[in-house]
Predict the structure of Adenylyl-sulfate kinase.
Amino acid sequence: MTAENLLPVPELYAPFDQADALKLEASDLVSWDLTPRQICDLELLMNGGFYPLQGFLGQDDYNGVVDNMRLADGTLWPMPITLDVKQEFADALKKGQKIALRDQEGVILATLDVSDIYAPDKAKEAEKVFGADDIAHPAVNYLHNTAGEVYLGGKITGIQPAVHYDFRARRDSPNELRAYFRKMGWRRVVAFQTRNPLHRAHQELTFRAAKEAQANLLIHPVVGLTKPGDIDHFTRVRCYEAVLDQYPSSTTSMSLLNLAMRMAGPREAVWHGLIRKNHGCTHFIVGRDHAGPGKNSQGEDFYGPYDAQDLFREHQEEMGIEMVDFKHMVYVQERAQYEPNDEIEDRDNVTILNISGTELRRRLNEGLEIPEWFSFPTVVEELRKSRPARANQGFTVFFTGFSGSGKSTIANALMVKLMEMGGRPVTLLDGDLVRKNLSSELGFSKEHRDLNIRRIGYVASEITKNGGIAICAPIAPYATTRRAVREDVEAHGAFIEVHVATSIEECERRDRKGLYKLAREGKIKEFTGISDPYDVPENPELSVETENVDVDNCAHQVILKLESMGLIKG
Ligand code: PPS
């Protein structure tokens, strides 16, 4: 490996003395408010983390990357870095126009010279880049349900980096890291990518990887966007800081990477490698199921466990960064140490211990012991602070069903029962109440219904985050919107979807509010179940039948479900 890793990587910022003038000029341009994912991408474009990209991909580069992981000029690049926008925004643009890119507070971070405006084939992108057009994959779900319909491509001129107020001293651009390695005389550096807290096994394997590669170690965790449901980066960084003391001093460093992960397994591993090369690293640890997205909608893994290592190995020479393959470390009780699982020769005579990620979550959720051989007490303490046992966490019960199905009545009964138990504040976000207080300007088009449900989801996720119980009872007819709410809530606590499965015939027969009659007469348009769709929940946590069961019993079924999930104590 040459010392090329110590030289600066090109950045896309405007020269220092021109930035103010550019900013002034940019304030008159049409501007696009970047999404959180686009802000992460822009930061790495501007600071050279995505070198050799010069901006968001134009159509030829995009096609090349999707089809064969190469830019139009043949350069290896596995991930489409695209600026997705809404159709209306794109319709008002012309090729050759310059636009301003703003962060979520309205600060102008860069300008884009729009060279390409194109509609991607999203199904093809999903198949080729993520391996399947299946929205169980978080990036495919994002592609279809969050990303805009049109992509803009073109060169970026950076005006200022995105501002971060948290862990400022721990964030480094590629050139800042290169300068640090130069100063420390680190010519060989092995990077460890992670989106999870580090426990003893990780500490052991990273230390071994560094020894094996005769390199220094860079712990390089992702703090941009990771997989929905992951532990938040604030908690993780405090955990990493607690582990850093465990490495021999001055051999190891940590820096935070503001990357928006896609969970694309093999392609993601190659992408991670290129990003680490740009950050001055010479080696990169690739593990089993690197950046794996979990199971597909058939319950199978999206990628084979070693696909990422295979693809990386195939390209590592061209990439200029070497793979160190991750060993699966397990604890051998008799020798009180971690050892690579496949190197234990006397396995019939020793006790091999391991705690999986799922088992760890269970122990945290149930407040059970986490042994010292598994993790460091300081790490466990941090985790327990942010993830108390389930019985003390907030959660959301989300009722969905036709108008007049009994949602509100059951939700009210549930609220009273939970208030009788005490311990956590309970808030009811009933459909009618929300429409009066939060969504009074909205009607019943798909767009308005989605907005209404996203508002409910936002409030519920805030309540859940702060340890309360949110009970929601809207119709919520669209599965994709319910899924989005689930994701918002599950970042902070449990989400229990309850389908109030009263048939449309029964709701119409009851017609409590007289609305079905009006809907049949065409006096109310877009009425759910009559002249508007309802996606029946496929996998709700609970489905209650109201036709032969009374309200008290339905509410009790929910209580039993909550007990079985450990959310309330029996
Ligand atoms: S949605 O789709 O989730 O946004 O609906 P929601 O906010 O729960 O509001 C449903 C209540 O509004 C009344 N209503 C209608 N429902 C469905 N379709 C149409 N077009 C409509 N117009 C008015 C109806 O009384 C619903 O109350 P519930 O409590 O569900 O019976």
